[in-house]
Amino acid sequence: MSGPLLQVKSVETYYGNIRALGGVDVEVNSGEIVCLIGANGAGKSTLMMTICGSPQARAGSVIFEGQDITRMPTHEIARLRIAQSPEGRRIFPRMTVFENLQMGASLDNLKYFDEDVEKIFTLFPRLKERQMQRGGTLSGGEQQMLSIGRALMARPKLLLLDEPSLGLAPLIVKGIFEAIKKLNKEQGLTVFLVEQNAFGALKLSDRGYVMVNGQVTMSGSGKELLANPEVRSAYLEGGRH
After folding, report:
1. Are 183 and 123 in contact (CB under 8 A)?
2. Whole-prediction pTM value?
C-alpha cells in the first residue's frame, strides 16, 4: 500500500473550552506496530477517541486509507474496519465470553464467524476454556484478552489498543504483548498502541511517539526512543533497561 494507513494532521481536540490535544501529527503505515507513550493525562486516550470520532477534532484532520474521516460518526468509522480495545476494557460483564465475541463480529463478515472465533481461541486459549463464563467473572488479564478478541472479531485493518497492560501482572502483560506481536507478524495486522508501560511498548513497536501535555514532543524508531536519554529518564528510570 502506498502512503500511510492512518494520518493524524494538526489535530486539536477540546473538552468544552479545555484543549486536550494541541496540533498533533501522527502517522501509522500499513503493517506497522506504532506506540504512543506519555504520562497519565498527557492526552493519549483522547487521541485514540478522536480517531474514532468521539470527541471529534475541532481542528486538523484524521485520514484513513486516503479518506478524511474527521467528521464521520463513530459507527461509520468502525465500518471502515478500525477496531478499538478501549482503556478499562469495557467488555459486557453480564454476557458470556462467547456472546462478547459475537458482539464484536462485523455484520458484513458473519460467514467467517466460526473461523474467526477459532483464531481468537488459538491466540488466547484461556478464553476457549472460559467461553461460557460471564465476562464480569473473568480476571483482569482474561478481560483484556476478551477486549482484544472482541476487537479482532471485526477483522480490522487497524487495531487501536488503549492501555492493554494497565493494572495487569507482568507475566500476563508479556503474554498480551506476545499476542500483539504474533498478530502483526502472522496476519500483517496494523496496530496503534497507547501505553504507560513505555519499556514494553517501545520494545514491541516499529516506531513510537512521545506525548506531553497534548502535544507530540518526540518520535523515532522503538530502538531510538529506548536509547534516548530524555525518554529513559522520564519514562524508563526505575523500570527495566
Report:
1. yes
2. 0.92
